[in-house]
C-alpha cells in the first residue's frame, strides 16, 4: 500500500516537474551559476552575489519584450524578423516627438507604438493576404523600418544626414530606467508583469489554446472554426508593439533616439524563445521557458565577463546553443510525427 502511495505521489507531483522542459533549463541555469561562482574567485573576481543577479535581470529587460512577442508568434507557427528594427523606429519616433515636435513624452510613446502597430499589420497583410513567407515578408519590413528611422532622424538635420536625436528626459522616462517599485528596479518589475500576463494568456485562456492549435495544425484549427486570419493580425501587431516597447525603454535609457538601437537584440528574442522550449514549428512552449532561456543567455554573457574570457566566445556559445535547441526541437517533432503515424495505423 505504501509503495502504491509513493508511486502515486511520484506520478502526480514529481514526474510532471522533472520531465518538464523548464526543469532542464533550470538545471542548466543552476549549473552556469555554480561554474562561474567557482571559476571567478580563482582569477580574483566575484560572481555569486545579489548584485550579479540584479545585473542579469536588468540586462534582459530590453530583450524580454522582443522575446514575448517572438514567442507568441513562434507558438502560432510564424516568425518576425523585423521586431528589432521596428522597435528602434518606435524609439526614434519618441525622441523626434519630444526633441523636434515639442510633444509631451506620452504622446510620443502613443504615436511611436501606433506606427509600430502599422508595421505589424503590414507584416500580417503580406503573409496572410499575399502569402509571402513570414521570413521574407518580415525581413523586407525590417529594411523599410530602418530606412524610415533614418529618414525621421535626418528631418531636423541641417545637412539632411541621419543622426541620433538627444532629448531632455522627463520624470517618467527617468523612472523607467532608474526608478524602483518597492526594492525592484522599475524596468524589471514591468518585465515580470508582462511575462506573467502573457504566460497566463498563452497557457490558461481560450485565445492561447487557439494560438497553440494554429501552430500545431493550421488546417485543423481552420476546421475547428478558429479565425486564424484575425489571430495572425493580432500576433504580428502584438510583436511589433512589443518591439516598440523595447525601443521606448532603450530610448529612455540612453536619453536619445539611436540609429543603431536594438541591433544587438535582433535575434535574441527568437533565440531565447526557442532555447526556452518554444517549438520553431509551432504548437508548443510557454513564457516561463522563454524567461529562463533569456536568463541563461545573459548569465553566460555576464559570467564570461567575470572570468575575463574573450567576449566573442559569447556569440559562438549562443550560436551553438541555438543549434542544439533547434536540433532537439527537430528530432522531437520527428518522434511526435512517427508516434502519430503508428497510432493512425492502429
Description:
This protein is 75% helix and 2% strand. With 346 residues, the chain is an all-alpha fold. The protein is globular and about 70 Å long. The mean pLDDT is 88.
| Inertia-based shape | globular
Low-confidence stretches: none
The number of strands is 4
Cα-to-Cα separation, first versus last residue: 35 Å
Please provide the ordered H/E string of secondary-structure elements.
HHHHHHHEHEEHHHHEHHH
Ordered list of secondary-structure elements with their pairings:
Layout: H1 2-18, H2 21-42, H3 50-59, H4 61-76, H5 83-99, H6 105-128, H7 134-154, E1 165-166, H8 171-178, E2 180-181, E3 184-185, H9 186-204, H10 206-216, H11 218-223, H12 228-254, E4 256-257, H13 268-275, H14 287-306, H15 312-345
Antiparallel strand pairs: 1-4, 2-3
